[in-house]
């Protein structure tokens, strides 16, 4: 029997506002993706374009801003928390953005089973749960197994972009990527500030941005 997958998140479903509930009900059919097997990213979007996948987009404001700033690129956002999904769908409808699609599910499943090999140009994770207590470090998403999953979906020369405000998590991320000769440090892509980043800065946390290019 295969070992049970350790989740990198705890599903704390906060209260959804009426607007978030309404947007989930009304707009999910237009922008939501519920894969039964492997998806074809080319059929998700109204136009062809390089695919960025963001894992854990939170409330989605920074993802929306990136999509607005780069209309020729397609964005797939993955988030397990429904209030954030509802918020993003509402903002997408209000702004008329059409180059974002959303999955409300575990990102590990998406990387393992629902995205084709060599389909992703950029994979980004901004402020994943740091699980700061040492006994919880096994729950951190970024590890050697994650790198293998990323390598499966990244196209050659694709980039993984990660940001965290926990120094020892940044150190761990650097160690696992530097130990894998399929990846090398590369220029950090531009991005906007996230809610978690602003909160971390208020608490005096430094922000560590890291980017790695995939060379199969």
Topology:
Layout lengths: L17 H14 L9 H4 L6 E5 L5 H9 L4 E5 L3 H14 L4 E4 L3 H8 L5 E7 L17 H10 E11 L2 H12 L4 E3 L9 H8 L5 E7 L2
Parallel strand pairs: 1-2, 1-4, 2-3, 4-5
Antiparallel strand pairs: 5-7, 6-7
Helix pairs in contact: 1-4
Summary, kept brief:
The protein has 216 residues and is an alpha/beta fold.
Task: Explain this structure.
With 216 residues, the chain is α/β, with parallel strands linked by helices. It has a single domain, classed as Vaccinia Virus protein VP39 (Rossmann fold). It has a 7-stranded mixed β-sheet with strand order 3-2-1-4-5-7-6, with helices on both faces. α1 crosses α4. It is globular and about 45 Å long. The two termini are 31 Å apart. The model has no long low-confidence stretch (mean pLDDT 91).
CATH architectural grouping: 3-Layer(aba) Sandwich
Biggest sheet, spatial arrangement of strands? 3-2-1-4-5-7-6
Radius of gyration: 17 Å
Q: Helix-strand pattern, N to C?
A: HHEHEHEHEHEHEHE
Please tally the β strands and state the result: 7
Give the terminus-to-terminus CA distance: 31 Å
> What is the number of domains?
1
How confident overall, as mean pLDDT? 91
Would you tell me the structural class of the helices and strands? Answer: alpha/beta
Give the quaternary arrangement of the chains.
Answer: single chain
- The gross shape turns out to be globular
The share of residues in helices is 25-40%
Please tag this protein with its features.
single chain, 216 residues, alpha/beta, 7-stranded mixed beta sheet, 7 strands
């Amino acid at each position: 029997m295969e070992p049970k997958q350790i989740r990198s998140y705890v599903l704390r479903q906060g209260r959804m506002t009426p607007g978030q509930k309404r947007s989930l009900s009304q707009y999910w059919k237009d922008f939501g993706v519920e894969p039964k097997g492997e998806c074809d990213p080319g059929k998700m979007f109204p136009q062809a374009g390089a695919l960025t996948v963001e894992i854990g987009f939170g409330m989605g404001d920074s993802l929306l801003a990136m999509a607005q700033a780069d209309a020729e690129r397609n964005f797939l956002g993955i988030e397990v928390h429904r209030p954030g999904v509802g918020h993003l769908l509402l903002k997408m409808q209000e702004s008329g953005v059409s180059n974002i699609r959303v999955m409300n599910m575990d990102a590990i499943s998406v990387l393992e089973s629902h995205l084709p090999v060599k389909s992703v140009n950029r994979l980004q994770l901004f402020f994943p749960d740091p699980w700061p207590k040492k006994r919880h470090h096994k729950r951190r998403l970024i590890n050697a197994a994650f790198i293998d999953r990323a390598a499966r979906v990244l196209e050659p020369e694709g980039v993984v972009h990660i940001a965290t405000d926990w120094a020892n998590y940044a150190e761990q991320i650097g160690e696992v990527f530097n130990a894998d000769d399929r990846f090398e440090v590369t220029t950090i892509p531009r991005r906007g500030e996230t809610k978690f980043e602003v909160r971390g800065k208020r608490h005096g946390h430094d922000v560590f941005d890291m980017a790695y290019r995939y060379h199969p």
